[in-house]
């Protein structure tokens, strides 16, 4: 920050003392930084602005135009950046004809790219342009005529200058010009100098200097001076932005801040095309020239490792999601299989119960056939009576447990219609007779 402040102070002092710096703001920065480098106290390490100012006065004096021509001649053409792929391996050799064709294609492609970029920037600028709204002070200064007619031209020039500066972003400076115009408009005296205007209210030393310039050189000189200062301001700001970006990217710039800024100015001047600078291109040039620091390389490796870790973890998540789906499918199939087994077991149990009922009915039929026989022995009677009792008990159990339709409830059973004991008694009586 001290280096940028020293450069800005030296440029301001050159303007105050009338030292003509090169018109191009980047050439002016180059000359200013070179003067500070030559007059720097190497033992203590601090900058000597006064000695640098004297050196600039001796070197430049009235040769600013010659310096512009020399700077334009010494500035080499824009160097081609080495592609990122060629940093790892060199490009394969081609024939001269292919090389010329590829260069022509690249040139045409870059020309089309720049044209498209220019159209986009113009369109975006047109969209962002807003109608300027006049302030109340400006409306009053324009609506009110000057008390003295001799001051009307000065009032009009101050109003135009203030409006121009407000449109370009210098709101406070533009308001100061408009307040001075309002005060001069109501002044009963003819204003012939800045010192006389300084006696009025709301007119400071800076506005008084601008009044002198308007009275002596006119509005065009004031506007050109404003444009020159505007370009120098943006040049210094762009230089500071580039150095900040290089430090954030951990580019190994020279440790001397003046030398680092001199290299940054050279990179910016080489990046200019069609009067516009490209800070990204300049940063790439500085990175290729000085390289990255160890911390930046380690950070890049760590970022790559983190990226790979996230990639593998994402793959594992996808795989685990597939396993969950597979397990759900298996669980569903097992549940379906279990339900099928349950149904088959139930059907088997029902079949077993049907078999038991059929056996019981067969035993009852056998017993009836035996009862209808004519000759039955006593031993057979006892055995059959035991079998009948067993069969009747079995049938009753089956009827009570399973309630099948082969022996219905509520209807007289086979054992109720046929009285086995009565038949036995009758049979025994007949045999006795």
Automatic annotation (TrEMBL):
Residue ranges of domain Crossover junction endonuclease MUS81-like HHH in the record: 150-218
GO molecular function: lyase activity
Short name of any one Pfam family annotated for the protein: HHH_8
Statement: the UniProt record of this protein carries the keyword 4Fe-4S: no
Superkingdom as given in the UniProt entry: Eukaryota
Keyword Isomerase: no
Keywords of the record: Lyase
Protein name in the entry: DNA polymerase family X lyase domain
Organism: Plasmopara halstedii
């Amino acid at each position: 920050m001290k280096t940028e402040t020293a450069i800005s102070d030296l440029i301001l002092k050159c303007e105050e003392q009338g030292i003509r710096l090169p018109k191009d703001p980047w050439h002016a920065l180059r000359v200013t930084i070179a003067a500070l480098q030559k007059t720097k106290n190497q033992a203590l390490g601090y900058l000597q602005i006064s000695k640098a100012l004297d050196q600039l006065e001796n070197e430049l004096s009235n040769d600013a135009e010659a310096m512009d021509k020399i700077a334009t001649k010494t500035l080499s053409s824009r160097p081609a950046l080495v592609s990122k792929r060629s940093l790892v391996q060199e490009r394969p050799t081609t024939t001269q004809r292919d090389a010329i064709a590829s260069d022509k294609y690249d040139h045409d492609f870059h020309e089309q790219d720049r044209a498209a970029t220019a159209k986009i920037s113009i369109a975006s600028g047109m969209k962002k342009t807003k109608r300027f709204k006049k302030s109340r002070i400006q409306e009053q200064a324009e609506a009110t005529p000057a008390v003295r007619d001799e001051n009307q031209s000065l009032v009009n020039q101050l109003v135009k200058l203030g409006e121009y500066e407000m449109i370009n972003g210098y709101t406070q400076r533009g308001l100061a010009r408009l307040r001075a115009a309002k005060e001069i408009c109501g002044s009963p005296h003819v204003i012939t100098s800045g010192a006389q205007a300084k006696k009025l209210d709301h007119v400071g030393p800076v506005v008084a200097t601008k009044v002198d310039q308007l009275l002596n050189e006119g509005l065009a000189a004031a506007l050109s001076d404003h444009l020159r200062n505007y370009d120098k301001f943006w040049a210094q700001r762009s230089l500071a932005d580039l150095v900040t970006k290089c430090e954030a990217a951990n580019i190994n710039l020279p440790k001397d801040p003046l030398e680092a800024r001199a290299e940054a100015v050279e990179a910016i001047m080489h990046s200019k095309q069609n009067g516009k600078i490209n800070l990204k291109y300049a940063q790439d040039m500085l990175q290729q020239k000085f390289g990255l620091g160890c911390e930046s390389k380690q950070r890049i490796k760590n970022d790559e490792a983190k990226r790979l870790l996230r990639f593998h973890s994402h793959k594992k998540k996808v795989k685990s999601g597939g396993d969950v789906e597979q397990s759900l499918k298996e669980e569903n199939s097992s549940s379906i299989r279990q339900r099928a087994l349950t149904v088959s077991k139930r059907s088997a149990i029902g079949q077993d119960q049907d078999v038991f009922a059929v056996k019981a009915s067969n035993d009852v039929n056998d017993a009836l056939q035996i009862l209808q026989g004519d000759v039955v022995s006593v031993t057979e009677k006892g055995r059959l009576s035991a079998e009948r009792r067993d069969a009747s008990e079995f049938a009753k159990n089956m009827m009570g447990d399973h309630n099948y339709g082969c022996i219905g409830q509520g209807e007289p059973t086979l054992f109720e219609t046929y009285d086995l004991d009565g038949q036995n008694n009758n049979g025994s009586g007949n045999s006795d007779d």
